[in-house]
Amino acid sequence: MTDQGKILEDLNDRSREVFRRVVEGYLETGTPVGSRTLTRTLSEKVSAATVRNTMQDLEYLGLLDSPHSSAGRMPTQLGLRMFVDGFLEVGDLSHDDKQALDDTLGTNASDVSGLLDRVGSALSSATHGASLVLTPKREAPIQHIEFVTLSATQSLVVLVFSDGHVENRLFTPPAGMTQSAMREAANFLNARIEGQTVSSIRAQIEADIETRRREIDVLASGLIDSGLAVWDGAGDNSARLIVRGRSNLLSDTQESENLDRIRQLFDDLERKRDITEFLELTEDGDGVRIFIGSENKLFSLSGSSLVVSPYMNSDRKIVGAVGVIGPTRLNYGRIVPIVDYTAQLVGRLISDRS
Fold this sequence. Notes:
This protein is of the alpha+beta class and 354 residues long. Among the domains are: 3-86, Orthogonal Bundle (Arc Repressor Mutant, subunit A); 95-137 and 284-353, GAF domain (Beta-Lactamase, 2-Layer Sandwich). The protein is 48% helix and 18% strand. It has helices at 3-10, 13-29, 35-39, 48-60, 77-86, 95-105, 112-127, 179-190, 198-225, 253-280, 332-353; strands spanning 64-65, 74-75, 130-134, 142-151, 154-161, 166-171, 229-232, 240-243, 289-292, 304-312, 318-327. It has a 4-stranded antiparallel sheet. The protein has a 3-stranded antiparallel sheet with strand order 4-5-6. It has a two-stranded antiparallel ribbon with strand order 1-2. A hairpin with a 7-residue loop joins strand 7 (229-232) and strand 8. Residues 244-253 and 282-286 have low confidence and may be disordered.
């Protein structure tokens, strides 16, 4: 069980209701909620002092905060996260919102780009927030590539195409992968990728890997025949060449150079395997995902939240996403079904055009 789940489980009925009422009041008004206001809406008739004590307990747990001692309470980032995960009641899409989206997106567009422009306008109009549209992935020549770490489990690759088009793709990085490793991968690729597509540069690197393996095999065979080395896990991609101790006393210049060359080739192989793994990673996620505050480094500086949902093509493959960016006090119960419906609508329109 997560820490959030444990906190939620430990709350009694009164604490749950006070917490929910504070967050709902804050999301509705954007201002802290006081104890006297809560006493008029709670299902249990209790004094304002009792409510204040409960709010202090929730503040101690890190779920609520107060601008100053005499003010009411408002949810912290952790509190908003727990509210979204454990208390949020997502309503049905209203008839007016559905009609507005259908009217805006229902007309034929000359191309997919025009369609997605209208998606962004429709979302902004319906939600009064900034819209985000991730377009279907392109297979075109690349000018520049960059990797950005968003969290321990999610990263972003930014692709700049030779025609100036910019595309962002979310992916789950390999376990333990560092930002410096991703920066090295980007530097390596940017020195070679201009004018090539992602798939063509991957094929080129994979061919380089195969060439290096063959070269290692040729160099290692002489060392093995002379008893200076032995393969561990022969035939496996992660096979290691174990060099025996007496090779440190080599006087033969050729064999010494071969050892150094093998070490360089292994280092090169390891780096290129990492890079091909980056190139093979795809977008992450399924369904609506809500990012709050600093959970999403792209929007943490502005204290914003992102509600985003992927859309699929006729083959049921995720090809893009639509979303809304706004303050952390978004009306999540209304925004989530709007974004979800828009994603489904775009998916159908994309499928029809393909």
